[in-house]
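As a warm-up, study this chain.
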Amino acid sequence: MNLLDAMRYLAALAQHRHFGRAAEACHITQPALSNAVRALEQEFGVTIVRRSRQYEGLTPEGERVLASAHRMLHEREALRQELSASVDRPGGPLVIACVPTAVPVAARLAARLRERHPDIRPSVRSLSSAEIETGLEQLSFDLALGYVDRTRARALRAQVLSTYRERYVLLRCRDSGAALAEPVPMRWADAARLDLCMLTREMHNRHIVDDAFAQAGAVVQPVIETNSVLTLMLTVLEGQVCSVMPGVLAELARQYPVLELVPLVEPDLTVVMGLLLPKGGRLSLAQQAATALAADAAWWRGVVGTADAAVHHSSAVSDGSAM
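Now compare it with the structure written out below.
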């Protein structure tokens, strides 16, 4: 058994949660993947995967093996980049995880990094806050964009490279007879009376919005719920509902003249978002290049906007030493 290959197959299975899709991602047959996982179980003398007719998740022992798999794969990739690339021309894969509302920032980060370093191959994954927190602990991705308060409250092993503050806005269709002027801010209590499309309750962003409504003395029952930030915008574009979202995400709506962004006040909600670097292993050259980009304050202001963000940076990490 090739231990590193078997660990890679296990990591793919945990990511895709399906034997067939994991095998396809690894470019092997499903029986080959299943046999590799069974070989791992024989090697360590534990059951790793809960099975019935389909994949049902990992056992507690399997979670520990998976954490080791991510660390081993991370170290292998960091070493491979050191041996095959150079600091002046970094290359290799770079996995960026982000909460759904931070997808626009993650996408711009990936594009700019690829522009600076053509040999880097960024991959952006939209994940829940809980999945990001697990991934930070297990080194299953290279960078993350998430909620700083959650990261600190859970004492996660992560360095906060950069932070920016987001304010929330109401996204609605513009009154066809209104002049193209900056909208008057709206109270959260007044927004609660509108027909709203909101994220589903398992998403952390929904809890943030619900808490703001609660502070305003309002309880909201949305007319549409979704776990897709794209759906939030598209339903508003149809003209029958409004939505509440962070300003950085809502900025995408400015390409549609029919939509407008209304600042929400009373309470004045500000949420701190951060670019997070997992701790616990050496930095790959791709990670080092990303941390250098994260130190570019002018670029960050261009991405998140001066109205929504006050960007703060920690010291950039420029070497491959363990953190």
